[in-house]
Amino acid sequence: MVTDRQRQIAEAVAQHGSHRRAAEALGVGHSTVDKAMARIRKDDPAWAERSESRIDRGDFTAPAPPKHLGETPAERWARRRQRFQNAKAATDAREWMQFRLKRVEPCAVLWFGDPHLDDDGCDFDALEAAIRIGNLPGVYSVGIGDYTNNWVGRLARLYAHQEGTAATAWEDARYFIRDRGLQWLTLIKGNHDLWAGAGDPIDYIAEGTADVATWRARFTLAWSNGAELRIDAAHDFKGHSQYSASFGPKKEAYFDGRAQIYVCGHKHSASLDRFNHPFRGTKHEAFRVAGFKRMDQHALVNGFSDATHGEAMLTVIDPRTVYLDGAPKFRTFDCVEDGAAYLQSLQA
Ligand SMILES: [Fe+2]
Ligand SMILES: [Fe+2]
User: Fold this and answer.
1) CA 129 to centroid of ligand 2, rounded, Å
2) 268 alpha carbon to ligand 1 midpoint, in Å?
């Protein structure tokens, strides 16, 4: 620790340009200044270097104040090395996160498609119906993203054409995420959410409630009898077919194949595929949930129709039955009420 007295001496050295003149100005012996400066150099070399740095210009010395950046490249590299290690550890910890279910009992995962809560086209009838299913015992929820419109930049003009403001939108998001009794496994961020950049309110809203994933979450549900269901959920997967809204997730299933379930949202249309992998023989489901945004002018002028089903979907899982690949029995319903009825028949 550099003491106040030592700092005072160092400041005098900086001000007067030499140990001798600083000693004279302070009315102390030359050796007192020498010792104090040696001590500072040992205890806090970076500070000493900054406080002592002067340039000799012949008849006078000029101050050489530290750069505004405030740290040397070596200091910055050490700090950034630590920062990168922390960030990488956080990223690695999210790869195939394992949720361990405490009971080997039938349960279900409810996939919430894009809510766009502040959009005037948000279908609250369908949303409330899905939330009712999410409140049933043994049902866990995943958000596929685009919780609010979060218009930014050039798109911010669109706030003029909707009732919800940025402030009420964050309130709505908080109400949906925290106050509706949903048991979230994870909340994925979509493109609208990611426009918030660093400091996204969704991160603060979800804190202590669910882990938040950027665009994609790969995770597993695991039971004590060895059953494990692998899930690859993203806001969207690359690949498009005008004939099949599930082309993107299905393509990912063909190329990747590590998960049993590939699920996404984003395009506001629904499709559900159940198939055996052509090379692996394993059972997979690839689907897109439509989300809750209706009367979408963007969709209208681009020739996409409003989805009439599959706003959310429900995957019912019975871990008491385990397949050869270790996956439990599972089946996704594009009608959440039908899924809930099946879940309840298994729970009875
Ligand atoms: Fe969306
Ligand atoms: Fe989206």
Assistant:
1) 22
2) 6
Q: Which CATH superfamily is domain 95-347 in?
A: Metallo-dependent phosphatases (3.60.21.10)
The CA-atom distances, in angstroms, between 154 and each of 150, 195, 215, 261, 323 are 12, 12, 22, 36, 51
Give residue-wise pLDDT tens across range 93-145: 999 999 999 999 999 999 999 999 999 999 999 999 999 999 999 999 999 99
Please name the CATH architecture into which domain 1-93 falls.
Orthogonal Bundle (1.10)
Q: Tens digits of per-residue pLDDT, 287-324?
A: 999 999 988 777 788 777 777 789 999 999 999 999 98
| Ligand 1 center–CA 32 separation, angstroms | 70
Domain ranges for the chain, please list them: 1-93, 95-347
CA distance linking residue 345 with residue 138, whole number of Å: 13
Token pair, residue 244, equals 């099949």
- Angular region, 190: left φ>0, alpha ψ -120 to 50, beta rest: beta
Match 């669910």 to its residue by tokens: 210
- In sequence order, the 6+-apart residues with CB closer than 8 A to the CB of 276 are 282, 283, 284
Is the pLDDT confidence value at 82 over 90? yes
| SS3 category, 319 | strand
Q: How far does the centroid of ligand 2 lie from the alpha carbon of residue 240, in Å?
A: 14
Q: Please enumerate in sequence order all residues whose Cβ is within 8 A of that of 142, keeping only pairs 6 or more positions apart, or say none.
A: 109, 110, 111, 112, 184, 185, 186, 187, 188, 217, 233, 263
